[in-house]
TrEMBL record:
<dbReference type="GO" id="GO:0071787">
    <property type="term" value="P:endoplasmic reticulum tubular network formation"/>
</dbReference>
<keyword id="KW-0812">Transmembrane</keyword>
<dbReference type="GO" id="GO:0014069">
    <property type="term" value="C:postsynaptic density"/>
</dbReference>
<feature type="region of interest" description="Disordered">
    <location>
        <begin position="1"/>
        <end position="27"/>
    </location>
</feature>
<dbReference type="GO" id="GO:0043005">
    <property type="term" value="C:neuron projection"/>
</dbReference>
<feature type="transmembrane region" description="Helical">
    <location>
        <begin position="176"/>
        <end position="198"/>
    </location>
</feature>
<dbReference type="InterPro" id="IPR046964">
    <property type="entry name" value="RTN1-4"/>
</dbReference>
<keyword id="KW-0472">Membrane</keyword>
<feature type="transmembrane region" description="Helical">
    <location>
        <begin position="62"/>
        <end position="91"/>
    </location>
</feature>
<dbReference type="Pfam" id="PF02453">
    <property type="entry name" value="Reticulon"/>
</dbReference>
<feature type="compositionally biased region" description="Low complexity">
    <location>
        <begin position="1"/>
        <end position="25"/>
    </location>
</feature>
<dbReference type="GO" id="GO:0007420">
    <property type="term" value="P:brain development"/>
</dbReference>
<keyword id="KW-0256">Endoplasmic reticulum</keyword>
<dbReference type="GO" id="GO:0005789">
    <property type="term" value="C:endoplasmic reticulum membrane"/>
</dbReference>
<dbReference type="InterPro" id="IPR003388">
    <property type="entry name" value="Reticulon"/>
</dbReference>
<protein>
    <recommendedName>
        <fullName>Reticulon</fullName>
    </recommendedName>
</protein>
<keyword id="KW-1133">Transmembrane helix</keyword>
Amino acid sequence: MAESSAATQSPSISSSSSGADPSAPGSGGSPGACPALGAKSCGSSCAVHDLIFWRDVKKTGFVFGTTLIMLLSLAAFSVISVVSYLILALLSVTISFRVYKSVIQAVQKSEEGHPFKAYLDVDITLSSEAFHNYMNAAMVHVNRALKLIIRLFLVEDLVDSLKLAVFMWLMTYVGAVFNGITLLILAELLVFSVPIVYEKYKDSSKTPWNRQKKGRINTWKPEMQQLLKHHLIVITMLLVPW
């Protein structure tokens, strides 16, 4: 009887072990998921992945549009003017909505109260414990950056210091053509355009989570490199005169 019970349990065990794990990299998974990341590491990284790959068109369009308008405004006007206009625009919306709701309540003789009461009641107070946690996390990065700066400028490692010198020398040529805002605009256009173009024209059968052979292989279709090259040239030529 023990052998028969073991025999009856073995098919269920084998079937469960042979079934594909939906969270495994090789499985298909849901469309729009981040296949290169595991379930444990899928958090803010997956949110950024979905954002730059335009999984939610409305959300990505809003983020891309607002940040691009902000950068273009900073390129054309001063920071003080941009901040002032943003605050004025926000106040215009909130004041207009407040007056509109007050008029509607007066006409309808209702007592709905303040239209932003739900947001005014939200507790946004930062506790001392949370503040110290944020400061401790920030100090770790600050101390690491200070150690790196001291190590590079005091030439602890000659090769690393020479690499920094060569990089800064190359950046002088970049600074002669672009300014900081232009580089940020170029970076944003590339971040929100290159990944979706790559995903559209890549060969999905050769992606790292689907390939069977080990080693590095080319995952781009033949026209992919030329398309991205033209894409980069067009964006760069649009921003060079600035």
